[in-house]
Amino acid sequence: MFHGSMVALVTPMDEDGSVSEASLARLIEFHLEQGTDAIVAVGTTGESATLDFDEHCRVIGQVVRMVAGRIPVIAGTGANSTSEAIELTRCAMQAGADACLLVTPYYNKPTQEGLYRHHRAVAEAVPIPQILYNVPGRTAVDMHNDTVVRLAEISNIVGLKDATGDLDRARDLVARCGERIDLFSGDDATGMEFMLLGGRGVISVTANVVPGEMRRLCDAALRGDRTAAEEINQRIDPLHQALFLEANPIPVKWALHEMGLIPAGIRLPLTPLSESCRTPLRQALQAAGVTLNT
Asked: Could you tell me the residue ranges of all domains in the chain?
């Protein structure tokens, strides 16, 4: 259903932290021009943790309207409260999103049975296609492959974004449930290998700044052309690293501001990129062929 280079879109903000609708529209057109395959709106890269419920729903609706059916829109609707995740997912469906991306409940540290029941409850309550999202480095909970296999039996659970960076786990997932759900990498550094193993694409932070390159990388990997994929990946690998010099989305928002695409706003408790990280990130951007305003 979904494939290729899917950008984990930032939520552009003015200096006062308010969402910049004009910059959001500019970003979307940038991605459409560059060939991005799908947009993930208000995922964790989109600062979902600091947008309130109404803002969250409003930005999803804005993205859906701005994209106007030209590519799929996947709405981030995960929460560590099952009832809130259901409400956000219902809101996204009503707004016209094509699917929802649900991060595992963070901080609560549910058991594997709790994870299963949480995602099953959301899927049963809202019939929109849903993609699971496992990122234990951020949530302090790890959805085991056995739990993913159980959830893959639910008809409207259609995919998994795996951000563990563990290719052995990816290989096991492809073998056990790759025929039933689509598997996506959520880790840019290992995304190429994930696709060559049988994954269907990458939900990418790097695609925010080099969407054309990420689209070409995904196209090559998905057709099994390792040589072409490696050539592109080698060129942008410094970006995969530099965009995580500080907590995501601090570096990528700074980069987009330097590119003249968004204002400098970011919400506390996140802060602008530290001075010590700016030179290495700027160098990685320039090495990847990105034109900067400064």
From this structure: 4-244
* Alpha-carbon span 240 to 204, nearest angstrom: 10
pTM summary value: 0.97
Task: State the binding site.
Answer: 45, 203
pLDDT in tens, 275-293: 999 999 999 999 999 999 8
Alpha helices (runs of H) in the chain, residue ranges in sequence order: 21-34, 53-67, 82-95, 112-125, 136-139, 145-151, 167-177, 188-196, 211-222, 226-242, 250-258, 275-287
Annotated binding site for pyruvate: 45, 203
**Residues identified as active-site:** 133, 161
Residue whose pair of structure tokens reads 């995602």 in the numeric block: 119
Tell me, which fold does domain 4-244 have in CATH? TIM Barrel (3.20.20)
| 3-state secondary structure (DSSP) of residue 196 | helix
Does a cis peptide bond (omega within 30 degrees of 0) precede residue 280?
A: no
Condensed to tens digits (0 to 9), the pLDDT of residues 176-208 reads 999 999 999 999 999 999 999 999 999 999 999
| Sequence-ordered list of residues with C-beta below 8 angstroms from that of 263, at least 6 positions apart, any chain | 12, 13, 14, 15, 20, 23, 257
**Any residues with CB less than 8 A from the CB of 35 and at least 6 apart, and which?**
5, 211, 212, 215
Structure tokens at 190: 């290992």
What span, in angstroms and rounded, lies between the C-alpha atoms of 28 and 26?
5
